[in-house]
Structure formats: structure tokens, C-alpha cells
Write a structure and sequence with these properties.
about 375 residues; mainly alpha; 18 helices; about 70% helix; globular
């Protein structure tokens, strides 16, 4: 398989996932505000109803993209090096932007250990287990995978959602274990949609039917978010039962991520301008994933958008577009410097050499 071949569907899904995550955090800044006009309620519900799928979708796409790719130990250390580079570069860039030198403190550089940054540490954990997850999905037959996903549905989704208790340690969708599960979902989709004989029932869901199903799920989620009263952040007795259905491990969120993946994964007739845009943005999605909810970025940009609820729909949309442009600009600059630095230091060759040396040393000591 040629892994350098660009897949428009995967690239588009990566961009959509990042847009969803950013949109969720931008509009969540309006929570608890008393200035939220009723006329803009539909804007908030539409944005939140569509954007809640971002984390699950990102994990599913990771599984789809990396399932058939040979995962070496050097790749894991390259990911760690990339994340460390961003953790160092983000405070530096934001300090230059804002003129505040105190942003360069150790507290801001090592914020990866904070709970607010759970999605980064969870992604590192998921990435570490990718070779094992690929091995499991590759050698498991359809019956075994069905039993596995049925068990996941019961113990990781239904029971935590309806009891509102994380009895089995899945973090309500906010930890590495859950991301690994969603990765397996994406890997299984890759396994059965890339084979010569795609199951008939699965083939029927690839394309427009899944996009329609995603739209239906998104509408239902928006209705539930309205019932939870996210806008005023009030929990009525009725809302307490609905709120777990809006978490990352909600059956609605998981189904929406799967439907959207099946709907767009085989897309091929993409306009040239859109294809060029996706090709430019898609490689930056990891950087955007790392920076978008960084405590400093949130403080400087996102929290200042808390008044977005009082804007008209086109002003709110313009504010989101401006934020996206800033995000992509900062990430493009950091990623360009990172790529040049890694090439200069030849990090991949160094990691490969060190790991081979360690492997050889351990083998000699075992003899």
C-alpha cells in the first residue's frame, strides 16, 4: 500500500474533526452567560449539536489511517518529540504575540499533565498501543470483533450513560482507554471497507445514507442539548438524565462519528480548490489538536469570545473564521520550524539507530 497517496476523504474528515473541536470550545465560552439572546439560541444549538463529535471522529480517523501502516517504535518517539516541540513553541509564540514574558514559565510549558489537557496525554497513550491494536483487529475475525464491540457498547457506553457512573474506568469518554476503543472502530472500518468483498450491509452505508443518518443524529443531539439547558448551565431533574447522552462515550456521539466517517471516507469528486485547501490544512491537524485548548491560547483568544453569543449569526461566524485563521497560521509557522529542526537533527535516524542498538544489546545480554 502506498501510504504517501493522499486520501481526500480522510483529509477532509481530519479538517472537519478539528473544526468541530474548535467550534465546541469557542461556543462553550458562552455557557452560563445571561446575555445569550433567545434569537441566537438556534446558532448555539446548531454549533454544539454538530461539534460534539470532534474527539471521537479524530480517534476513528486515526484508526482508519494507521491500521495498515507499519508502526515502528521510532514513530512513537517522533510523536513525543513533536508534542514537546509544540509545548515549548506555543508559550514562546503566545509570549511574542501578547508581549507577556511570564508565559514562558515551566508551569505553562508542562501543562500537558493538567486535566484540561487530557486529550493530549490520552492520544499519546493510544498511539503507544497502536501496534497492538492493529494486531488485534488484523487477526480477529468478524464474529470476535462483533463480540468485542458488543461488550464495549454495553460496558463503556450504555451502562455509564444510563447510570451516570464510570463503573468500569472508561472516563466517560475522556481517557486513553476510550480513544483506543474508537481507534479500533476506525481500524475495523478500514479492514472491512478496503477488502475486495465488503460486507453488503456495510457497503450499503458508505456514502449518502450515512450522511443523512449523521444529520438526523446531529439534530437529535441538538434537541437533547437544548433539554439539558447548556446555554444557562442549569441542571433540572429531567436534564440530569439527558446530560450523559452528550458525553464523548454517548451512543449518539459514537454513532455520529461512525456515520460521518462512512459518509465521506470514499469521497473522490472533490473540487480542485477544496482539495488544495484540505491538502494544506490536513497535515497541521495534530498541531491544531495540541494548541486549540492550550491554557494560554484559551486565555488570550477563546475566553475573549465569551461575548460571541450576543453577536449576529454572521458576526459569530466571522469571529470563528478569524480564530481558525489565527490557529492555522500559528500551527503552520510552528510546524514549518519543527520540520526543519527535525530534518537538521535527523531525529528519526537517531531514534531508529538508538532503538536498534538497544534491541541488539538486550539480545546479547539474554544469550
Amino acid at each position: 500500500m502506498n501510504h504517501k497517496k493522499f486520501l481526500p476523504g480522510c483529509g477532509l474528515l481530519r479538517v472537519i474533526a478539528m473544526g468541530m473541536i474548535i467550534s465546541e470550545h469557542v461556543f462553550s465560552g458562552t455557557l452560563g452567560t445571561t446575555q445569550f439572546p433567545e434569537s441566537n439560541r438556534w446558532l448555539f444549538l446548531a454549533a454544539m449539536g454538530v461539534s460534539r463529535y470532534g474527539v471521537d471522529l479524530f480517534a476513528v480517523i486515526s484508526g482508519y489511517l494507521l491500521y495498515e501502516r507499519e508502526q515502528r517504535s521510532a514513530s512513537f518517539f517522533m510523536l513525543l518529540s513533536t508534542i514537546i516541540t509544540y509545548l515549548l513553541a506555543i508559550p514562546l509564540c503566545l509570549s511574542l504575540f501578547s508581549g507577556e514574558v511570564n508565559y514562558l514559565s515551566i508551569h505553562n510549558i508542562l501543562n500537558i499533565m493538567k486535566y484540561e489537557y487530557w486529550y493530549v496525554t490520552a492520544y499519546i497513550g493510544m498511539f503507544f498501543f497502536i501496534p497492538f491494536l492493529n494486531l488485534v483487529v488484523r487477526h480477529a475475525d468478524g464474529k470476535s470483533l462483533s463480540q468485542f464491540f458488543l461488550a464495549v457498547l454495553v460496558f463503556a457506553v450504555l451502562i455509564p450513560c444510563f447510570t451516570r457512573k464510570d463503573v468500569f474506568g472508561f472516563g466517560m469518554g475522556n481517557n486513553a482507554i476510550f480513544l483506543m476503543i474508537m481507534y479500533c472502530v476506525g481500524a475495523a472500518l478500514k479492514k472491512y471497507t478496503s477488502e475486495n468483498s465488503v460486507p453488503k450491509w456495510l457497503g450499503a452505508w458508505i456514502g449518502k445514507r450515512s450522511l443523512i443518518a449523521f444529520a438526523a443524529v446531529a439534530v437529535m443531539l441538538a434537541i437533547m442539548i437544548n433539554g439539558v439547558e447548556f446555554i444557562t448551565w442549569k441542571y433540572t431533574e429531567a436534564a440530569r438524565g439527558i446530560y450523559p447522552l452528550c458525553n464523548n462515550n454517548s451512543p449518539f456521539i459514537i454513532a455520529g462519528a461512525i456515520f460521518l466517517t462512512l459518509g465521506l471516507i470514499r469521497i473522490s469528486n472533490v473540487p480542485a480548490w477544496l482539495l488544495k485547501t484540505v491538502k494544506f490544512i490536513a497535515p497541521l491537524t495534530l498541531g491544531i489538536y495540541l494548541i486549540h485548548n492550550h491554557p494560554l491560547f484559551r486565555k488570550i483568544f477563546i475566553l475573549r469570545l465569551s461575548g460571541i453569543a450576543t453577536l449576529t449569526w454572521y458576526e459569530a461566524l466571522s469571529a470563528c473564521v478569524c480564530l481558525l485563521i489565527i490557529l492555522y497560521g500559528v500551527c503552520a509557522f510552528i510546524d514549518y520550524l519543527r520540520e526543519r529542526l527535525f530534518q537538521l537533527l535527523q531525529l528519526k535516524k537517531i531514534y531508529t539507530f538508538l532503538l536498534e542498538w538497544l534491541n541488539l544489546t538486550f539480545r546479547r545480554s539474554a544469550i
